[in-house]
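Subject: Sanity check before I submit

Could someone independently write out the structure tokens for this chain? I want to compare against mine line by line before I put it in a report. The sequence has 323 residues.
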Amino acid sequence: MKYAKNQTSNIAVKIKSALFGVAVGDALGVPVEFKSRQTLKNNPVTGMMGYGTHNLPAGTWSDDSSLTFCLAEALTTEFDLNLIGQNFVNWYHHGFWTPRGNVFDIGIATKQAINRLATGERSDLAGGFDESCNGNGSLMRILPLLFQLLDKPIDERYELAKQVSSITHGHIRSVIACFYYLEFARQLFLGRDKFETYKSLQTEMPDHLNALSISPNEIKLFDRLFKENIYELTAQKIFSSGYVLHTLEASIWCLLTTDNYESAVLKAVNLGDDTDTTGAVTGGMAGLLYGIKKIPAKWIKQIARYDDIENLAERLTNKLAKC
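---
Independent answer below. Compare away.
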């Protein structure tokens, strides 16, 4: 997709907003990862903090952002599943795209998939295909794929989401979650209202999934998004574990029940449990929706490897502008 100058400027801002949106939401959650909702209710996160769960300085992001940047890095050259997978291996084994030189957090399914990649498994077959392999490890890092599939037809968008999810998470449930997230993000990128987006996907997503003959039982699991107004639910009915569907629902709920980036990501983190991932997934969408200028500057300035992330965004923009 080749862009005119004004379009290139717009996509540059969107890419920066998405990448920093993920990293800031992630870093807000890192110090309180695994803390309960009740604990955070008594002592909520109100800004960027240091140390805590992983004993790391403020602004440190986790595997969520690392793997997001690994995917974005691969897309600065060409779309190649093997290159994406190799970047994941280089992250885990060699510290590539870590915030401070070492890996301090990794999900079980992601670790297993990366070990399979390291021994030569084909990238799109490395992820677990069992129902038990439905953690949020592919959802948390899928957002840069948005910029690869913007102008593609829906069949191709689905296939790309499936391929990139399957590097670490191959079960159809994780694939649907990634596809939904990317479709939501795509409409935000195109300037559509978040509630209009939510409503339109209630028709478009089930129609497409049914056309693909995906198991009705799997599609039904997404009914809170496909058939209900999830934003009308109370916090007590929103879950924030590491299960992919919980993360997706919580992130959409946080986005739809707030009206700015700061409120969205703080709401996500203060749900507790898998705080960094809920923060990262919410933060990516909120970054796209509100733009980088609406992400508190005091938070962005504390983000580890700020210059490297900015450079990555520029290189991804330049690559897309030339395609």
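---
OP: Matches mine. For the report I'm noting this point. The radius of gyration is 18 Å.
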